[in-house]
């Protein structure tokens, strides 16, 4: 293991028995066969799921798996949110059946959040659960969606409406693959990175401010500690609240109640998820300032860092940002309980709390700069 | 609670926290609102899933739920195995969305194994898991599929290939509804009842022999203890091995490796599941006699009881029972590991063990009476 390598342990719900590790190392894509066989010694068949943009990454992985005696094939889904569907999941089942995959088979997800969520739900479901190895290739997937066991697909009437909690057997992160990630996707991932600082680690937030230039330049020397710290912070949340029942995990939703509404109103694809989160965090922080919960200076630091990372802090003109439309979309968020809006708001840099009693007029006022 | 009522506690995996109870009482269908609200006090919306033959049972249940402040609607699926599909599950999601169901909503499964398995998987999946109440209406569902948390649907290429382990919040069994169950379905359920005796309770087996006439006449005085004992036996297995990992749960599969092959070869519907299990148990017991594991007398008692319950002990002539065809179908059973046939065979009345080393010629020889 090179000196740049890091390992993060995850113990969902505090149960070491269901624990797994995240291996974070430049160039580790080539180490998949060893990573997989160490964790799944009985696995003899694997389907490597990826999207069409990543076939050149996934194909050598499947070849390498065959080299260690695992029957492997690549299954390609279309890139984009539309592949997070029950139909796409059925396609993965067919690929498993083609390999005569039994319960010892595994799925390997090579891609961003769409591939990871879809493949994870397929792994949770095939024969009531087979093993999953996550190989996230986008920054967003590395710091967020590949850790924590949330999997799922969309329905025509909404995102992530069905799925399962299914922890992976391991997560293999090769930061080198970020070199070719499109700028807009990379910056979108940074929105979630900033989020971790605001919700739980002021020191990490300051570290991000200090290294903003190197982060934007995707220097390996900062990417490894950056991703590792995000994974550690998420792992701590998942250890405390695996199934989103105690409220701890809900803190990860900072900015997201706004963001989901914005994504709905914009139509998927107009705003990236990270861009929506960036605007959502801006609204949430503005609301916290208006309620006297944080100083204006906290809002300003968050805004400056988001902008430094080339993220928007307001909606594009094309999106209907009327208060009525946004509030209606927010009310339909599945995280709400019994109809009340649940908002995650900062109480200082590095700490958030959940509020279910914010008047809708206050929420509406926070949508735009006054 | 009437003196005829019984309650069986289930603690999957030995974890009391995920435990639930089975309430078994003649006439208890009318008690659904209290049963549900006691266990799910926060539930405000419920979809009652049933098939077209049971609408007259399910509709008053939904009406009664509305009477206690739970927004409820009946969702009807076509009767029969074809409804165990991803498409039917999507229909249940749509019904939940129509009610704006949040994570506190629940699903109520009123029906046999098809409705229970389908609805259970939908409950496991909607918003990554909502509560489920099982109201089994067939004998098979009462003694087997409603207990233990196995849920799932079929794929075009095979039965039960996808699903989840999802324990219900409670199971409500009203033996009175068995009065109108078609004979063939009732007898099919008795195959699983006989199975419990053979695999784990010789005393219960003898009780079944003694009360065969009253059982066939569906007398309430025998139905309550019969169903309760089967639920207790299954609950003990589920407590020891919730996720089918230790081999204990696999003992429930007695006769089923044969049966699944027979069902595949016959085409779904020609043989009922219970009929296939009856023939499968006969083959398994014959194999055990041939291997010198049990006395001929055990085989004879099992055969006599199955026949007393009007169950077949050999395949109908229309089914291709050639050894090659049966063995090929058995090899594709998802319970197999690494290609070896895993067979559950009796070692005495009331005890079975798992064998992975039975030569295929022996299996072939056990398919027909010599």
TrEMBL record, chains A, B:
Catalytic activity, EC: 4.2.3.4
Record's catalysed reaction(s): 7-phospho-2-dehydro-3-deoxy-D-arabino-heptonate = 3-dehydroquinate + phosphate
A GO term for molecular function: 3-dehydroquinate synthase activity
Names of required cofactors: NAD(+); Co(2+); Zn(2+)
Main location: cytoplasm
CDD domains the UniProt entry points to: DHQS
Pathway: Metabolic intermediate biosynthesis; chorismate biosynthesis; chorismate from D-erythrose 4-phosphate and phosphoenolpyruvate: step 2/7
Localization: Cytoplasm
Record-annotated 3-dehydroquinate synthase C-terminal domain positions: 189-336
Binding site for NAD(+): 113-117, 137-138, 150, 159
Residue sites binding Zn(2+) per the record: 192, 256, 273
Pfam families to which the protein is assigned, alphabetical: DHQ_synthase (PF01761), DHQS_C (PF24621)
Limits of the 3-dehydroquinate synthase N-terminal domain: 76-186
Cofactor binding mode and count: Binds 1 divalent metal cation per subunit. Can use either Co(2+) or Zn(2+).
Keywords on record: Amino-acid biosynthesis, Aromatic amino acid biosynthesis, Cobalt, Cytoplasm, Lyase, Metal-binding, NAD, Nucleotide-binding, Zinc
Family in the record: Belongs to the sugar phosphate cyclases superfamily. Dehydroquinate synthase family.
NCBIfam families in the cross-refs: aroB
Protein purpose: Catalyzes the conversion of 3-deoxy-D-arabino-heptulosonate 7-phosphate (DAHP) to dehydroquinate (DHQ).
Protein name: 3-dehydroquinate synthase
Source species of the chain: Alienimonas chondri
Gene expressing this chain: aroB_1
């Amino acid at each position: 293991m090179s000196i740049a390598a890091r390992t993060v342990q995850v113990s969902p719900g505090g149960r070491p028995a269901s624990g797994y590790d995240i291996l974070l190392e430049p160039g580790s894509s080539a180490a998949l066969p060893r990573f997989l066989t160490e964790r799944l010694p009985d696995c003899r068949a694997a389907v490597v799921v990826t999207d069409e943009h990543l076939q050149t990454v996934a194909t050598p992985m499947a070849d390498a798996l065959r080299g260690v005696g695992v029957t492997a094939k690549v299954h390609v889904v279309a890139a984009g949110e539309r592949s997070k569907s029950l139909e796409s999941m059925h396609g993965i089942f067919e690929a498993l059946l083609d390999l005569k995959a039994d319960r010892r088979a595994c799925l390997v997800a090579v891609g961003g959040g769409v591939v990871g969520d879809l493949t994870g739900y397929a792994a949770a479901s095939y024969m009531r659960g087979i093993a999953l190895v996550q190989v996230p290739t986008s920054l967003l997937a590395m710091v967020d969606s590949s850790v924590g066991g949330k999997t799922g697909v969309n329905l025509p009437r909404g995102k992530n409406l069905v799925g399962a909690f299914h922890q992976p057997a391991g997560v293999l992160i090769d930061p080198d693959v970020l070199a070719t990630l499109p700028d807009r996707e990379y910056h979108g991932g940074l929105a979630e990175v900033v989020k971790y600082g605001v919700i739980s680690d002021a020191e990490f937030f300051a570290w991000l401010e200090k290294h903003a230039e190197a982060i934007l330049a995707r220097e390996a020397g900062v990417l490894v500690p950056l991703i590792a710290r995000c994974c550690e912070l998420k792992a701590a949340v998942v250890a405390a609240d695996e199934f989103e029942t105690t409220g701890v995990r809900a803190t990860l939703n900072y900015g997201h109640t706004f963001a989901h509404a914005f994504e709905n109103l914009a139509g998927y694809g107009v705003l990236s998820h990270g861009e929506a989160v960036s605007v959502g965090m801006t609204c949430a922080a503005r609301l916290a300032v208006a309620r006297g919960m944080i100083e204006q200076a906290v809002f300003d630091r968050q805004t400056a860092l988001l902008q430094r990372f080339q993220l928007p802090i307001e909606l594009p003109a094309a999106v209907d940002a009327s208060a009525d439309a946004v509030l209606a979309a927010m009310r339909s968020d599945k995280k709400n309980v019994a109809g009340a809006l649940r908002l995650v708001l900062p109480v200082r840099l590095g700490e958030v709390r959940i509020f279910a009693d914010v008047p809708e007029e206050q929420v509406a006022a926070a949508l735009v700069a006054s």
